[in-house]
Design a protein that fits this description.
The complex is a heterodimer of chains A (219) and B (409). Chain A has 219 residues and is of the alpha+beta class. Chain A is built from eleven helices and two strands, in the order E-H-H-H-H-H-H-E-H-H-H-H-H. Chain A is elongated and about 65 Å long. Chain B folds into two domains: 3-195 and 391-408, Rossmann fold (3-Layer(aba) Sandwich), CATH 3.40.50.2000; 208-388, Rossmann fold. In chain B, the strands form two sheets. Chain B has a seven-stranded mixed sheet, covered by helices on one side. In chain B, strands 10-9-8-11-12-13 form a six-stranded parallel sheet, with helices on both faces. In chain B, strand 11, helix 11 (321-328) and strand 12 (333-336) form a beta-alpha-beta unit. The longest helix of chain B is centred in the last third of the chain and has 18 residues, at 371-388. Chain B is globular and about 65 Å long. Chain B starts with a strand and ends with a helix. The mean pLDDT of chain B is 93. The chains are: A alpha+beta (219), B alpha/beta (409). Chain A binds chain B through residues 12, 14-19, 21, 23, 52-56, 59-60, 66, 70, 119-121, 123, 125, 128, 130, 132-135, 150-155, 200, and chain B through 20-23, 25-26, 29-30, 32-33, 176, 179-180, 182, 184, 188-191, 337, 342, 346-350, 353, 355, 380, 383-384, 387-388, 396-397, 399-401, 403-404, 407.
């Protein structure tokens, strides 16, 4: 079995939620908040929320879409916001730009709705990230599979979802290592195609383990 | 004299079966850089109330992670606790006429406790307004001080908040249960959810026989739908509104209503509300009004587990941990969109929110008509609690806070 020169080092992450000073009671205020909030806030309400709500696989995408749906009852705008897929973004700036564009266009098209009061306010928060090494590493596919099976939700999220921003590539830590360190490009590609919106962290992990099993049977 | 509490050991590995070994390994990894570092938690009571309940479990679990943690309780006379009770209500928005004497009493007891409490840990966590002025003991640059506020400060009495704010602003950070409860402050503010313990008597798994026995004891029919609200007899929990919602549901579904709370015997206002509830119930044999002795945790657990739908129709709410308790038991919940409830009940995902008696009744009818949707909401609710509102998650949040404070220093 192939052994990688560079081992995969498993890490976990924990987030502290910092309460921001901005809130929104209308769609127009949401737009202002999106334009001015910190990058850590955009991350919190999109990338991080997907991890902490991973068990919702039907219709939950990000906090902005959920608020627009539940508190302003604008299903059409909620749908557009929910359709923004974080896998398409390697920078927060690009994601913010699209969030602003979608809300801005809606407010311009329906100015009477832009200032209607929501049922509850939206509070902008931001994520403060702390990482910790788990003391596990893998050089072979066997070791990698074993470590994945024992990884916490947060550790799995860190390597599989938030890593996209860190790597600045349209991939994740697992695929990156499988492709570049073990030379398993096809497996890396299949792993990168696991849908994080329609799978929970547990079912994503189960799919990843099945893909590794299949790869091992080929060897 | 102040008191350092000695607590029984709670093995962290007991949680591995429920949460997975990976989650426990993660707690140990996060705690590693904090091994041996000192933490002091300070509040104003060792028994009773949500804060003491949480610290009773949190402190032994932190010890399991090799943190040098202790829990000290400040002391005060009856006059101090009368003042702090008034402050508590005023901060919640109740009417209050400030008197200079009240502030003097508050400061005098804080000063007395500064002389007896160690206050020298690397991380000082001060809970709620009572010990807030202990910050006067802080030596510049010596250690980190954070203030954990468990109450809703969204509409505080101006005079009381202006007085407290002078102390709070000198901490390194403040933690609130909801963004809505926070204030504009010059220090970082963090979101810290209250938590339930899955292994406590109120939340542990129960034998079916025990649940059946509890239902039989109170004359509740397990074959028919059971709607339940667990809360003390308080107007802010709107028990009368719950009965009105039940009557609307009853037109379409054969169901029973259980209203269970603590005994009203030592609470004059509770006794008045209980009378109002009994009057509204009007001897309906399908309405069970239960006064449980000291909240009888195993019985509350059994009632929640036996319920078809759990209701929390509060008019105002702090966080409302009874919602998390029900969700942990995979129960579909219909609750008011107030206080910390919308954090727990994500509408149409982990439960249903309502804003009126009629809305509450409609959502209950919807769930009774669609048991498969009710089951799915309950399942999602369970996962939501597992990810966010368990004592182990709270511990993780504290570890993250301490690491963040240490990093910033």
């Amino acid at each position: 079995m192939n052994a990688a020169e560079t081992p995969f080092e498993f890490v976990t992450v924990s987030y502290l939620t910092r309460i921001g000073n901005q809130s929104a009671g209308t769609l127009a205020e949401l737009l202002t908040g999106l334009e001015h909030c910190s990058d850590a806030s955009i991350f919190h309400h999109t990338f991080q929320t997907l991890g902490s709500h991973h068990f919702l696989t039907e219709g939950f995408s990000n906090d902005f879409a959920q608020w627009v749906l539940a508190d302003t009852n604008r299903n059409d705008l909620a749908e557009q916001l929910a359709a923004l897929d974080i896998r398409d973004y390697v920078s927060i700036a690009a994601l913010r730009s699209d969030l602003c564009r979608v809300v801005g266009e809606y407010c311009a098209a329906f100015p009477h709705l832009a200032t209607q009061a929501a049922l509850e306010r939206f509070y902008f928060c931001e994520s403060v990230e702390v990482t910790a090494p788990l003391g596990r590493s893998a050089r072979t596919l066997d070791e990698f599979q074993d470590a994945i099976a024992h990884l916490s939700h947060a550790g799995f999220y860190f390597h599989f979802i938030s890593s996209r921003l860190r790597l600045q590539l349209r991939t994740n830590d697992f695929s990156h290592w499988l492709g570049n360190s073990l030379g398993l490009g096809t497996l890396a590609d299949s792993v990168n195609h696991i849908d994080i919106y329609t799978n929970t962290l547990d079912s994503s992990r189960a799919k990843l383990l099945r893909l590794i099993d299949r790869e091992r049977r080929k060897a | 004299m102040s008191e350092t509490l000695a607590l029984n050991r709670i093995p962290l590995d007991d949680y591995a079966e429920l949460l997975g070994a990976g989650e426990i390994e993660e707690l140990r990894a996060l705690a590693k850089p904090l091994h041996g570092r000192s933490i002091e938690m300070i509040n104003s009571t060792a028994i009773g109330g949500g804060v003491a309940e949480i610290l009773n479990r949190l402190v032994p679990l932190a010890e399991e992670l090799e943190l040098n943690i202790k829990w000290d309780v400040m002391t005060g006379g009856e006059d101090f606790f009368d003042v702090t009770k008034s402050f508590h209500n005023a901060l919640h928005g109740a009417p209050y006429h400030s008197s200079p004497r009240d502030f003097e009493i508050f400061l005098a007891y804080n000063e007395r406790n500064r002389a007896t409490l160690p206050l020298d840990a690397e991380f000082m966590v001060i809970h709620d307004p009572q010990p807030a002025a202990l910050i006067d003991a802080r030596k510049p640059g010596a250690n980190h001080w954070v203030w954990r506020c468990h109450i809703d400060l969204s509409h505080p009495n101006r005079a009381v908040w202006d007085f407290l704010e002078k102390f709070v602003s000198r901490y390194d950070g403040a933690m609130f249960s909801s963004p809505e409860f926070s204030r504009q402050l010059p220090i970082p503010q963090y979101l810290f959810y209250p938590a339930i313990d899955p292994l406590s008597e109120k939340n542990q798994e129960l034998q079916r026989d025990f649940i059946a026995e509890v239902l039989a004891r109170y004359g509740i029919d397990p074959q028919r739908a059971i709607l339940t609200q667990i809360s003390r007899f308080d107007r802010l929990k709107d028990p009368v509104g719950v009965i009105r919602a039940y009557r609307i549901v009853k037109r379409y579904f054969d169901c029973q209503l259980v209203l269970a709370g603590g005994s009203a015997s030592d609470d004059p206002e509770g006794a008045v509300v209980l009378k109002e509830v009994l009057r509204e119930a009007n001897n309906d044999p399908d309405i069970k009004i239960l006064e449980l002795p000291a909240w009888a945790p195993l019985e509350v657990n059994a009632l929640q587990r036996a319920s078809t739908v759990v209701i929390q129709k509060s008019l105002r709410e702090g966080f409302g941990l009874t919602v998390s308790e029900a969700l942990w038991k995979k129960k579909p919940v219909v609750a008011s969109a107030v206080g910390g409830i919308p954090i727990q009940v994500i509408h149409k995902h982990t439960g249903l929110l309502a804003h009126s008696v009629e809305g509450t009744a409609y959502q209950i009818r919807f769930l009774l008509s669609h048991p498969e949707i009710a089951a799915k909401l309950g399942e999602h609710g369970h996962h939501h609690v597992k990810e966010n509102f368990l004592i182990t998650q709270k511990l993780k949040r504290y570890l993250t806070l301490f690491l963040t404070l240490a990093r910033a220093a």
